[in-house]
Amino acid sequence: xxxxxxxxxxxxxxxxxxxxxxxxxxxxxxxxxxxxxxxxxxxxxxxxxxxxxxxxxxxxxxxxxxxxxxxxxxxxxxxxxxxxxxxxxxxxxxxxxxxxxxxxxxxxxxxxxxxxxxxxxxxxxxxxxxxxxxxxxxxxxxxxxxxxxxxxxxxxxxxxxxxxxxxxxxxxxxxxxxxxxxxxxxxxxxxxxxxxxxxxxxxxxxxxxxxxxxxxxxxxxxxxxxxxxxxxxxxxxxxxxxxxxxxxxxxxxxxxxxxxxxxxxxxxxxxxx
Length: 273
What we know:
Elements: E1 13-18, H1 29-44, E2 48-52, H2 58-66, E3 72-77, H3 82-94, E4 100-102, H4 103-121, E5 130-134, H5 140-148, E6 153-157, H6 167-170, E7 176-179, E8 196-199, H7 206-219, H8 227-237, H9 249-272
Helix pairs in contact: 1-7, 2-3, 4-5, 4-7, 4-8, 5-8, 7-8, 7-9, 8-9
């Protein structure tokens, strides 16, 4: 089969893929993927199609992605069990297949941007601020993104630590907590000493990250979704006035284009090394 970048003249498309392994109960997978494809296509201005791949494990899902048509330039893997998604991503990276973006990548990018923005609005610099990451095991890439953004004091915590190190003790003296496991009240910041609590709900800019990355990959064959590319994306999102929330559609398209331009620039720099 021809590779996804075999012909520069061909119109490359994005495909939104799921096996439904992390689909919330009562949600319709086909409708969910269709909505995601319409959103990505509208923001990135590239063709996007929804595709269900029935698979019982990572190997089957990876095989289904490999078998996609040659005009697919990039893949968004969504509503897939996180461990399975990461395994598929690693397997396809090793085989130099078309780039695969997963939900966890996009969430981590958005949370990194929100964290640095929140620190800045509180009059704090990333360097020297203490950030606690509760549920660090769920988003392993987030620590690397925070460090790349200048956050140099990160405490990671997981629920398995609770018996010996309760979270309410760990967060004492922190500037910000990223709570991925719902352990802290998000509203009762006064009771938490004014501590800023960031959760998965604070990722309004995530669609622009996904669309910008996927759009860039379609137009720049060979672009890989690596930490340097993700950092460039997060840096753009930090400039959004309120990265916790989504923005009007026209502004969203503009942010998406800024992301695509930034990551394409990084990719060209990588090629020149």
